[in-house]
Every structure is written in structure tokens, then in C-alpha cells.
Amino acid sequence: MLSSISFSVRRGEICGLLGPNGSGKATLLACINGIQIERACQNLY
């Protein structure tokens, strides 16, 4: 879980987001746009 993370882009600034498949790029963008719903997770062993 992530907490206390900040991210800022100035008006007119272009920012790239790179990472391998499955690394959470789309999830990060969904969180920034406020469309990611909060889910409860459970670790299964």
C-alpha cells in the first residue's frame, strides 16, 4: 500500500509515465482523475 505520496505537474508541462506491463500506470492515472474505487485486499497464502 502507498501512503503520503505527492505528484505535481505544472500547467502546460508535459509528463511521461513509463513502466512495464502490469506496473500500475493506468491505475495511477485513474487515481489522479478520481475514478479509481477503493477496494479491500486480502493476502492468501
What does this structure look like?
By secondary structure, this protein is mostly helical. 18% of the residues lie in helices and 0% in strands. The mean pLDDT is 80.
What's this, in brief?
This protein is an all-alpha fold and 45 residues long. It has one helix spanning 25-32.
Average pLDDT level? 80
In total, the number of strands is 0
Separate helix tally: 1
Evaluate the radius of gyration: 13 Å
**How large a portion of the residues is in β-strands, by DSSP E?**
under 5%
Q: Mind sketching the topology for me?
A:
Layout: H1 25-32
What descriptive keywords fit this protein?
single chain, 45 residues, mainly alpha
